[in-house]
């Protein structure tokens, strides 16, 4: 009976966790891991909890692109990821992009250095009765590529920071994926507030170390830089 209980507990934990395995672009979802670098949690669905780990960048199973291809998309268009099975925890949804350096390509660049800029951040709706999180329960999450960024190759990163256990240091659970994009059109605006992963967050940041239940927070500050806008 103990063995059965342990198995059931493991299955329950896996079901409560999630991945972002497929890119949404050009009006539809692609095949899993076709344009998204395969993540370490592709079987376990488990999160990253150490913000200082190299895994906090793209949570890659192995160096390189894991066979992922690069999708061509227009600046200003809607892109995103599917959530498998869904975003089952309360928490913050954020998207980042990083422009691939000249002479390199999205399918071979590792995304290291202070190169990432935030393009979207979605925290909670706050009321006296508690916090609600718009992304919780979502089967896909999307945003728009800034219309003014230069054309070229980019890495596109999603993170969902689950905060149900974030009352102690290291309790926040982050679910991450990176896709490979070639952006067409666009403009000539250079994004600002660039950060590195790891390096952008500290485990004690107020957006990562927080009891979201009691006492009910009256404000919330997401980790990382301000959102870049055109």
Descriptive report:
By secondary structure, the protein is mainly beta. The protein has two helices and eleven strands, in the order αββαβββββββββ. It has helices at residues 2-16, 55-58, and strands at 23-25, 28-29, 71-74, 78-82, 91-99, 116-122, 125-127, 130-132, 140-144, 152-162, 173-184. A five-stranded mixed sheet has the order 3-11-10-5-6. Strands 2-1-4-9 form a four-stranded antiparallel sheet, with no helix packed on it. β7 and β8 (130-132) form a beta hairpin. The radius of gyration is 17 Å and the shape is globular. The protein starts with a helix and ends in a 46-residue tail after the last strand.
Alpha carbon gap, first and last residue: 59 Å
Describe the largest sheet: 5 strands, mixed
> Whole-number radius of gyration?
17 Å
| SS-derived structural category | mainly beta
Give the quaternary arrangement of the chains: single chain
Report the portion of residues in β strands: 25-35%
Helix content: under 10%
Give the helices and strands, then pairings.
Blueprint: H1 2-16, E1 23-25, E2 28-29, H2 55-58, E3 71-74, E4 78-82, E5 91-99, E6 116-122, E7 125-127, E8 130-132, E9 140-144, E10 152-162, E11 173-184
Key descriptive features of the protein:
230 residues, four-stranded antiparallel β-sheet, 11 strands, disordered N terminus, mainly beta, single chain, five-stranded mixed β-sheet
In a nutshell, what does this entry contain?
8% of the residues lie in helices and 28% in strands.
């Amino acid at each position: 009976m103990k063995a059965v209980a342990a198995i059931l507990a493991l299955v329950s934990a896996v079901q409560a966790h999630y991945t972002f395995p497929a890119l949404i672009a050009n009006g539809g979802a692609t095949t899993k891991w076709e344009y998204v670098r395969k993540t370490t949690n592709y079987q376990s669905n488990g999160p990253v909890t150490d913000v200082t780990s190299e895994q906090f960048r793209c949570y890659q199973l192995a160096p390189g692109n894991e066979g992922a291809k690069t999708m061509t998309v227009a600046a200003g268009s809607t892109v995103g990821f599917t959530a498998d099975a869904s975003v089952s925890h309360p928490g913050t949804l954020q998207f980042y992009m990083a422009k691939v350096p000249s002479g390199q390509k999205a399918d071979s660049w590792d995304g290291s250095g202070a190169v990432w800029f935030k393009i979207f951040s979605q925290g909670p709706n706050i009321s006296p009765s508690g916090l609600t999180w718009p992304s919780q329960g979502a089967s896909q999450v999307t945003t728009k590529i800034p219309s003014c960024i230069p054309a070229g190759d980019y890495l596109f990163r999603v993170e969902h920071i689950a905060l149900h256990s974030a009352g102690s240091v290291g309790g926040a659970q982050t679910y991450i994926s990176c896709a490979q994009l070639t952006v067409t059109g666009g403009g000539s605006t250079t994004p600002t507030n660039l950060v590195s992963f790891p390096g952008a967050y500290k485990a004690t940041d107020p957006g990562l170390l927080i009891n979201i239940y009691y006492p009910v927070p009256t404000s919330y500050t997401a980790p990382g830089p301000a959102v870049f806008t055109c």
